[in-house]
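Person: At home tonight, work slowly through the protein below, taking as long as you need, and write a paragraph about the fold.
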Amino acid sequence: MGLKAALSKPFAKYISKKVYKEAARAVELQDATMKMLVDKAKNTAFGKDHNFASIKNYEDFKKAIPVKDYEGIKHYIERIKHDEENVLWPGLPMYFSKTSGTTSGVKYIPISKESMPHHITAARNAILLYIAETGKAEFVDGKMIFLQGSPELDNTYKTPTGRLSGITAHHIPRYLQKNRKPSYETNCIGDWETKLDAIIEETVNEDMRVISGIPPWVQMYFERIQAKTGKQIKDVFPNFSLFVQGGVNYRPYQPIMEKIIGKSIPTVEVYPASEGFIAYQDSQKHDGLLLNTNAGIFFEFIPAEEFFNDNPSRISLKDVKLGVNYAIIMNTNAGLFGYNIGDTIKFVSLNPYRIVVSGRIKHFISAFGEHVIGEEVDRAMIAACEKFGVEVTEFTVAPQVAPTDGLPYHEWFVEFNKRPSDLPAFVTFLDEEMVRQNVYYKDLITGNILRNLVLTELPKDGFINYMKSEGKLGGQNKVPRLGNDRKIADALTAMIK
């Protein structure tokens, strides 16, 4: 064991104790965070517009600050882009994180000097808590790769702008820099496929021990290495021992990944967002991700089934319940208040507060009132794959409201890595799982409003080609699991005709 690994163990134990001590005071810390945020931002333009000076408690907070998405704060962001200070948070942001989500156009999310360190600390803590629990630290002595966006920053505005993963690359601790791959020059390559080839050239002969990224893009990295070497990943990187992943539900990708790797690899899931580092996996023994409750973020929660109501319930951490699907609302030390990031979560533990990501509040199918969510289609697909020994590369689901003949249906676009031997039986089972999970879908099927789902098979690299056509290949981009319209479905259909 090297010096870094040896030193990391006592440090990991220290951080673990600190994290769980804070987790035991989560409600208290959240209350203190709310008050700190209001006090710090009371003299900003947003604070004055929303009468922060009158806020004394959470009830006042809710009355003063409405829930908004990006469009609701865009006029404040435009003022900051024109170098106006003290708009959402004191001074100017340290960075803008530029995102191109599926539910809006380009967004400029502020990152402040107060919020930036928490992006790094949370990622560090996720790895340290893994070391503290398992005692495994040898990977610290080897090389680490983070498949991420370009670290180049755009200085069009006084506030530098870049992708979140590229921004955080500038703040990686110095003690990790020598271990980290790829090089700065390679990371700056714009075209994803060219960049991927360069990353492989830099890493294929290195002692890679930690690999991090969004599963479908890491899968692409692995597949290209396998094509280049003719070997499984375990033989290319014999000391590969930890996969840090996030952004999508890993379970549908896991069978393919383990087949390519050649063995099961421990994973640590993280839940970062441009708005703040929300949660991370703290244990290999317990389900869920530990909510990051002492990181300058005050969380609120709206039951997902009420979200589109005129006056939905809005609660703080102390009132959450297990198993309820909540839209997560963020208030941050970068100046976001009542901000809906669009994700839905469920609590799987209240001591400590652990969550799972259940989907996107705008990614659902409810063409007929069924309100099918991402968590449900993921579960159905995982169950069907396990039963039939199938491997799925990627999939997405959309409604077909006006078919040329017959009743409307849900259309599943699926790219198989290993096809089912009996496709009709696979489709039937998939539909039965959806009926079992969603009573509204069941009622529509039994009431002859919808017919059973239709599966449209995509050829190899179908989703990669779609993402390429959209200019969203690689990086932090993801294929939406669900759409309530035919935008993606029609594009995929056109590609296979």
